[in-house]
Structure to design on (444 residues):
DNA sequence: CCGGCGCTCAACCTTTCGGTTGACGTTCGG
DNA sequence: CCGAACGTCAACCGAAAGGTTGAGCGCCGG
């Protein structure tokens, strides 16, 4: 936080990691307007972001603005984990379009210092960067609410195994195929499904997929 | 196309319609660099875009850069239809993140002059704007390929009714609930499903949803 | 004008799924 | 140390979904 000298307003060095040129240009335009921000690098891939974030000394990065969805290759969450694993690592602020449970938890577990949505107004963005640079956590209100909901209703949380089954169900596999995929008996798969239905308040596999998708427990693409 | 005077490089007036302030700033930064572009307005909602695109005379808009996904309220495709329905309407260039069949077809049917993906490089963006302003169509390569695929395999295209059924299946409804929803008998619903399975090459409702989603025939959110 | 396609429905059968009950071992925290 | 939660499996039954055959209607285009 105090890599740069200067008394009242230490400069915050930023790295922008997003695969969309337009978004990078937008972030640059928005954040360059802040006098205490300095954008020292951009990265169009998660791999490039990991590399760029490793710079030390006077070229070091204070805060990384990290998208989660890159095209092919490494995912933003993996890049976040790689960056924060190092010592004296910069803070990583995740900036993405979606606010699903899966994404948020993955980012938080990867060591993200904050989670913002791309529809955030510029002021909120700048405030979050300063919050992250100061070592505190920055969560968008919508994200914070979702985390609170999750805390409040722990019974509804699907277990690891149940999520695994549900993902295969979402991919269109039958119980028999799932049992082979996970080296289980069909009875076990059905048992998991019954528990899933109870937790989600539904009574069929398709409804479970719909409910889990709308609640952000699972994602469609990966 | 010749609203503005000037011989060699007539100015192209642009309207940016996107609900993300960062994206608007990025588009502005990228497009303001082009000497023959002038951004005359921005809109954060689809409704505002329809209104702003209605300006006539010297304040008129030549090309609208339209996002498809706005938060609540009107959809970008609906706004595109509303804008292009008028006489002497500006060209609408759809600029979105996804390249699903459903989105592309909706945009083309709404009268869009082009379809670009947000990960396009700035040069491609500027070129598409000029193409659209000149009255021609501008399709991103990925989008064009998808349309070609669709032309090549017309047998796989789901009918209107089949898509309607499939959407309800995706929402987790049983055949009985679907039949009531659409005022059909269960026999008809099953008949549609059999045809859907054949066209998609699957053999269950969940697999049909998975296949249709991955091919972009249906979308998760709306 | 007729063939094809989409939409509708019925009857029947097989397979899968949904739901229950009951059971056993493990792991973790009070 | 023991209950709670998770994960595993079996047997069973009714309900739903998958699959087939067959058939009637309306519309569009060759």
């Amino acid at each position: 936080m105090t890599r740069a000298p200067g008394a009242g307003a230490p400069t915050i060095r930023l790295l922008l990691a997003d695969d969309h040129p337009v978004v990078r240009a937008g972030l640059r335009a928005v954040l360059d307007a802040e006098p205490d921000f300095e954008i020292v690098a951009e990265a169009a891939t998660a791999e490039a972001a990991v590399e760029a974030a490793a710079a030390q000394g006077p070229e070091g990065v204070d805060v990384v603005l990290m998208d989660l969805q890159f095209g092919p290759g490494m995912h933003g969450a993996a890049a976040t984990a790689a960056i924060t694993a190092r010592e004296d690592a910069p803070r990583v602020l995740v900036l993405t379009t979606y606010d699903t449970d899966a994404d948020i938890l993955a980012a938080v577990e990867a060591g993200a210092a904050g989670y913002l949505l791309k529809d955030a107004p510029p002021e909120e963005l700048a405030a979050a960067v300063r919050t992250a640079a100061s070592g505190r956590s920055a969560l968008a209100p919508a994200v914070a609410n979702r985390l609170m909901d999750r805390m409040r209703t722990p019974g509804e949380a699907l277990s690891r195994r149940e999520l695994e089954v549900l993902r295969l169900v979402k991919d269109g596999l039958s119980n028999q195929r799932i049992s082979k995929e996970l080296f289980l008996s069909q009875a076990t798969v059905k048992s998991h499904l019954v528990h899933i239905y109870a937790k989600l308040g539904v009574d069929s596999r398709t409804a479970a997929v719909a409910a889990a998708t709308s609640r952000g427990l699972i994602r469609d693409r990966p």
Notes: Chain B touches chain A through 37 residues (CB under 8 Å).
